[in-house]
Amino acid sequence: MHLLLIEDDLDLGRALSQALKAEGFSIEWLRRIADAPRSFEGDACGCVLLDVSLPDGSGLQLLSRWRRAGVTVPIVVITARSALEDRLAGLDGGADDYVVKPFATPELVARIHAVRRRYAHQASDVWSFGALDIEPRSHVVKLAGATLDLSPREFQLLLELAREPGAVIPKGSLSQRLDPLGEPVDFGAIEVHVSNLRRKIGAERIKTVRGVGYMLAA
Predict the structure, then answer these.
(1) End-to-end C-alpha distance for the chain, whole angstroms
(2) Of 2, 8, 21, 110, which sees the most CB atoms within 10 A?
(3) How do residues 6-57 score in pLDDT, each as one tens digit?
(4) Angle at alpha carbon of residue 115, lines to 203 and 29, rounded to 5°
(5) Are the beta carbons of 1 and 116 closer than 8 angstroms?
(6) Measured over all CA atoms, what is the biggest interatomic distance in the chain, rounded to whole angstroms?
(7) Rounded CA gap, 110 and 84, in Å?
(8) What's the pLDDT tens digit per position in 91-150?
(9) With contact defined as beta carbons under 8 Å apart, do 31 and 6 qualify?
(10) What's the whole-model pTM score?
(11) Residue 30's Cα: distance from chain center in Å?
């Protein structure tokens, strides 16, 4: 997924860019409103991370301008302003989420994925990928209408890949996501789970990008 980061703080901008690239995102980093695009073509940008206090104006003004122009790309406001009225101003102004600095990178990544799921209308009860249907709430996976027998870890892995169909999810990111509160899952174990998943849902549905990670075919 490609992200647009609009943040004027040099240290934070560099740190965020590096951390998010390590999570498998591509990043364009801008520091001024004047450099921001007026609109976005198709799905070229998956999500915008927008600071409020910028050197040439308020990020909320840019947010309002985008929404008035019909821009629908998910936008996450990132700011040190934590007061209720500031959060309400951001959300009422069209932000999909509002994250207060300082924040942990895993939380920001989770919020990016959450707004993308809502944007893709995958907050529904069934996520469909051709003949493959995933029901996140009931932990059910069906292939051509037949329910598959997946282990909890296989289901969790498939769900993480399904959150971003067509995008490569790095092994390191999967390792963290599969057990966010514990030790990262061993890469060898991930490979075993992927192999088992391919056997059950069809090898062609999970692509390997050598040296990077895996992708669920959209």
Answers:
(1) 14
(2) 8
(3) 999 999 999 999 999 988 888 999 999 999 988 876 556 889 999 999 999 9
(4) 95
(5) yes
(6) 57
(7) 22
(8) 888 998 999 998 888 889 888 988 887 776 554 567 888 899 998 778 899 999 999 999
(9) yes
(10) 0.58
(11) 19
